[in-house]
């Protein structure tokens, strides 16, 4: 199941996913691409089944945080997208929240959240047409 979700998130077909899951997958693809670009990584780095180097792990934690906190995607769905357990996503959210005490990290997350809100607004406007 986890591998299928990672494949869907990285651009494969969604299969028989529900509308809500499709929304999560679309948001997940955007988040992974956006965070990977910010960290000069590939989306495949963030979706890899192994932890990787610290820079990759931190980027993955940012992406998980944005998925859950900024988008409201349930922990289980975020976990499935990354091939992780929901408790790992919860841990990532706590770590990132603690790291927001650093002004540079807080600014970076603010930029990512703003980009995500803009993307969401544009996506919703397109759906209404």
Which features would summarize this protein structure in a list?
single chain, 129 residues, mainly alpha, Chromosomal Replication Initiator Protein Dnaa, Chain: A, 0% strand, disordered N terminus
Overview in brief:
With 129 residues, the chain is mostly helical.
Q: Strands, helices and their partners?
A:
Elements: H1 2-9, H2 19-38, H3 43-47, H4 54-70, H5 75-82, H6 86-99, H7 103-128
Major sheet summary line: none
Helical amount: over 70%
Shape: globular
CATH architecture: Orthogonal Bundle
The CATH class designation is Mainly Alpha
Number of helices: 7
Written account of the structure:
- By secondary structure, the chain is an all-alpha fold.
- It has one domain: DnaA protein, C-terminal DNA-binding domain (Chromosomal Replication Initiator Protein Dnaa, Chain: A, Orthogonal Bundle).
- Helices cover 76% and strands 0% of the residues.
- It contains 7 helices and no strands.
- It has helices at residues 2-9, 19-38, 43-47, 54-70, 75-82, 86-99, 103-128.
- Helix 2 (19-38) crosses helix 7 (103-128) and helix 4 (54-70) runs antiparallel to helix 5 (75-82).
- The longest helix is centred in the C-terminal third of the chain and has 26 residues, at 103-128.
